[in-house]
Structures are given as C-alpha cells and as structure tokens.
Amino acid sequence: MAKKKTSRQFATALEIERSIHVIRGQRVMLDADLAKLYGVPTYRLNEQVSRNKDRFPLDFAYQLSQQEFTTLISQNAMSKRGRGGRRTRPWVFTEQGVAMLSSVLKSPTAVRVNIEIMRTFVRLRRLMATPGELVEQLTKLAETVQLHDDQIKVISQVLQQMIETPVPSQRSIGFHAKHDND
C-alpha cells in the first residue's frame, strides 16, 4: 500500500521568526525546529549533518552546552528528559548553517523552506539597524527636537507678550495747568 501524501502548508514567515533564537550572541535555529519545518524527523536531520561534518564548521552549527540546553528547556517549555523528550543536547544552526543544510537535504520541500528561512533572516537583518545607523538616526532626532524646542520657546514668548495686559499710560487727556500756590 502506498503512503498517503499529506498536503502540509509550507512554513510561514511568522513560524520561522518564532523559531529563531539568540544564543551566544548569534541568531540561530534549533535542529528540532528546522526538522519540523522541513517535515523530517530531528534524528534524520542530525544524521545528515553528522555524515557531512566538513560542511558544518563551528560558526555554521554547534551543539548546545548542558547549561544552554537547560536554560532553553525552561524558556521554551521543552520536554524534560524522562518525559519522552530529547535525550541529547540539540544542535543549533546559524544563518550560514541553515543555508548549508540545503546542500545536504535535497528534497523539494527542503529547498522551498530554505528559501523562506533565508528571506526571514535577511528581513530580520534589515530590521536590525547597525549601531552606526542608530547613532546617526538618534543624532538627527536630537537636532530636530532641539530645533523644535527653540521654535516653541519663541512662540511661547510671543504668546506671553500678547497675553500680558498692556500697562495704561499715566497721561490724561486734556489741558492741564500748573497751579502755583504762592
């Protein structure tokens, strides 16, 4: 009997974004999340990676330390060991590692999912302004605020002058004679 094909929707950008974590200062994806997106078991994905170790240097993929794994379990409510969950520490893949996975996993699904993952990483990179750009934007904003502050002060002074009632002159109208009392 032939296996029934399931019509699984491909990964959405939101699913991919939720799968991206920051570990050791890098944006990475867990092996389990990638396997789910690719529609393969996690052990198969890791098996392909271990068969192609030369394609995955440490800046492409690495296994989490026990402490990182424990932290990840508590943050993401992953199964604890002994409850049917993972028994090995997960592998994480950087953007370059995910790109390399496309050369190891050759199914049409893997190719399409990889394209979406790459687009998501690029979009996240664009959203995150570099520190130099942020400083430049903040400087421009500060200059604009200062300019507006100066203009508001001038407007405030003019309005204050208009609100103040003018002091009436003490000069009375008409002819005034000086009276000498000699």
Total number of domains: 2
Q: Which spans of ≥5 residues are poorly predicted at pLDDT below 50? A: 1-8
- In which order are the strands of the major sheet placed? 1-2-4-3
Provide a count of the helices.
7
Largest sheet: 4 strands, antiparallel
Strand content: 5-15%
- CATH class category label of the largest domain: Alpha Beta
How many extended strands?
A: 4
CATH architecture of the largest domain: Roll
User: Roughly how many Å apart are the termini?
Assistant: 139 Å
For this entry, what is the oligomeric state of its chains? single chain
Overall morphology: rod-shaped
SSE succession: HEEHHEHEHHH
The whole-number mean of residue pLDDT values reads 78
Structural class: alpha+beta
Annotated CATH topology of the largest domain: Mlu1-box Binding Protein, DNA-binding Domain
Radius of gyration: 35 Å
State the share of residues found in helices, binned by percent.
40-55%
Can you describe this structure in just a few lines?
This protein has 182 residues and is α+β, with helices and mostly antiparallel strands.
Descriptive terms for the model:
4-stranded antiparallel sheet, 54% helix, 182 residues, Mlu1-box Binding Protein, DNA-binding Domain, 2 domains, alpha+beta
Structure description:
- The chain has 182 residues and is of the alpha+beta class.
- It has two domains: 13-128, Mlu1-box Binding Protein, DNA-binding Domain (Roll); 129-162.
- It is 54% helix and 8% strand.
- It has helices at residues 13-19, 31-38, 42-51, 66-76, 95-104, 108-127, 131-163; strands spanning 20-23, 26-30, 61-63, 91-93.
- The chain has a four-stranded antiparallel β-sheet.
- Helix 2 crosses helix 3 (42-51).
